[in-house]
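Entry 14. Ran structure prediction on the chain below.
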Amino acid sequence: MSEHAGRDLARGLINAIAGEVRFGAHDRMLYATDASLYQVEPLGVVIPASIEDALRAVSYCGSRGVAMLPRGGGTSLAGQCTNKAVVLDFSVHCRGVLGVDAPGKTCEVEPGITVDELNEHLRGAGLFFAPDPATSRHANVGGCIGNNAAGARSIRYGRTSESVLGLDVALADGTRRWLDEGAATRDEAVLALTRRVARVVLGVEAEIRERFPKTIRRNAGYGLDMVLAGLDAGGATAWWHARGGVGDIPAELLARLNLAHLLCGSEGTLGVTLGARLRLHEVPGARGLAVVAYASLEAAIDAVPAILATNPTAVELLDDTVITLAKGNAECRPLVEVIPSPSSGELRAVLYVEYSGVDANEIDAGFAALAGVCGDGAVRTYTDAKAMAGAWQLRKSGEPLLHGVAGKRKPITFVEDNAIPVEWLGEFVREMKAIVARHGTWAAFYAHASVGVLHVRPLIDIHDEADRTAMRAIAVETADLAQRLGGVMSGEHGDGRVRGPLLERFYGARLMQAFREVKGIFDPRNLLNPGNIIEPGPIESITLNLRVAPAGVPTPRVDDAPTFFDYDGHGSHGGLSGEVELCNGAGVCRKKQGGTMCPSYMATLDERHSTRGRGNALRLAITGQFGEAQRWSDPETLATLDLCLSCKACKAECPSNVDVARLKAEYLGQYHQRHGTPLRTRLLGAVRMLNRAGAAWPAMANWFNTNRLTRLLINRLLGVDARRSLPRFERSLARGWGKDPNEAPGKGPAVVLFGDCFTMFNEPGIGRATRRVLEAFGYRVLLADAGCCGRAKISMGMLAQAVDEIDATLERLVPLADREDVHAILVAEPSCLSAMKDDWLTLKVRTSIEARRRVAAKAFLPEEFLETRWDAHPARARFRREQAPVLLHAHCHQKALWGTDSSAAMMRRVGDVRVLDSGCCGMAGSFGYAPHRFDLSMQIGERVLFPAVRGEPGARVVATGTSCRHQIHDATGARAMHPMEWLASCLDEANPSSK
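Output, structure tokens:
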């Protein structure tokens, strides 16, 4: 489409619909990828405001012959969510539950709701939607329908098609139809459609019965076998044969045929799902999970048939590749602890075996039966809901975790979805290993073992032509192997760009012609996701339109400009080039509940403001795909980064460990180096200088901050929203510490309190409280007014200045860290501690990495130090038990880098503490001060944190970060304490410590 035609199309859509129309290059490219290997720039993006709006968009595009691609979470692994078409994104506004019939166990929903959102809505009714793909937190129900998703429990509940009762569908011309059982008897248009489909299917009846796989899971081509089953059930097949295939099948004989099932797995090529009526199931009264460890993959696979005889709800497999990667991921590392050690040998594979039933007796019976058939596996059982959820989370993280494999070769998706009869699984694994070995590589394995779906991920360097050639050969050989063993090359992930070219080889010419005829019935002009399933291209096209070579030419690599961060060490993946390719598009960052990643997406539901959106923008910009001259200065990329809170949650919660905060800082640093640093940025980055000045004359500074006229000047100079309060200043902490703030009288164990910019000049009470508590534990407390950690400058991209500042601070800290009598460097502010333990180790500062590591090794939050060294302190402080409930909100950097367990554990020694799963507070340093970000800042906090604080007015609120405490006060009026302030308030004043 020409640029002129694109502008006309955009203008027409803007006039036709109420929703958003995004046709700019930046927005188009953010929708050019999904969770697959591919990148295809769409014509534009439409975000409909409602289902009726979506129908208008379909009608408009259809009337002008414009290709369309309905899209949900964009989690497809086969490339079916990438196309040169107008993308219809249902995930933002079309997310409603239209009704729940609890007695009838059904519900009606819009397509943009995620599986987990729907099940959360159904929880109160004791019902659930059964398909549970690994992406359930961010996969949309519409996408589950388009992909016929299944998940771990499909052996019990089947695929999405078994849970779909009816679909509200827009055809390519904008015609709206309801498809369900009996629709052919009620709607003449549906009857005509059904008869045409039936004629095609009955024409290839013999081929369907012979060539369609008999596996429980199958998702290749169109589901003509489901259509044939409906024709059989209604008597239409017998009628057709009796009349020699002549005449129109009576409508009543088509009443059992549900064309909605044909759209399941059709990848948006037959119709656009506008709504669905779904079958629901009762939540089991009891569930139990057994984790079975094996010393070899083959032993785990061979155990599956016998385990299936015990009637489990699910049997899932992970190999040691995923387990090893999980150990290196902050979010997933604790999940590995649920796995027992094999009875002999090293851990090489694990099976997750789930049982469900009416009560615990049924679970115990399942566990007992399992113990007798699991062979050499070591078994550990769980019935606690939280423990089971943790174990399942590791399995669900398996696919994206694999993208964290170091090196140029990555375990990629192209033969990852074979469905094999369970009795042939062992043979498939052995032959699959031989195939990849013949091509000079190896593969990772994980599986829905209960239904024979094996996710095999050969390691391939898609930058390398020889590896791409091997990739095509492996794809062909694997499809042939699956067919020979009675299986199919896709059990749930679909065809898309990666398996579509193999469909005719698998099914033969007659069935492929039937697929074409069905497509022609629903979409005669080939407007819906063209090129998927039908006319997919030759086998060579499997390696076309790759992210690394979207136009068949390798993408320009990252230039050789010196970087501020070191991307070749500290666990990185192949320099900056590898770093910007870490995002695999899995979309875990698009979750809407739980955790912290990604706060701006949770608030806006905008792809631009997800970790994936920013990762894509950075990759595209830095590799020159937004323009060679704008690699480090693309305005749209800068705008996308502007709403990143640099919370570091992605570093921990993204299974691929994408660190957008670091990449954002690098991008801004490179931009400032080329274009200069704005005055406002320089002022906000000079936080220590400003705070020190304010603390020198705190009364005058606080008056300036609150006087109407001077506040107007401050707002304009620093870019502060008038609704935001400013931090108060107090006399420097050093003034009340003693004559020499670097020393304390007496001998014996010492700790150093790092004088961060806020504890020194805004909240010195935290420093004094820390001193009181640590002295009660028998320590001398030295105050180090050593300088700034550089956090503000790092976050704002003032990296050249940050390097100088950090080196100066390290010059003063290193000697203290090297003293034998200094047991720890205590940092009250988590964002400053994260600079020391994370950013300082990767920034290219002049101080040696060994010295930086010595400082980092001794750096702790005060309460963390107290808890982790509980049995080694010189004395034991005495506390009074806090009677009021305590709510603990932890800083994002703390949650991302070292967790909240130690802080919470120390506080629970003194009171009843509840850790809030509150995500980000929304303040993020200077982020929440800016007028254009203030509302978003408050919206983020309003998701969980603010309601939790307001909901318990009698509770003591504790927040570890200065920004968090400020935000809580501005939003709720509550005063949040630092953990050390709260601990100090609970000290037994009459007898504060015992030796």
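The radius of gyration is 30 Å. Will compare against last week's run tomorrow.
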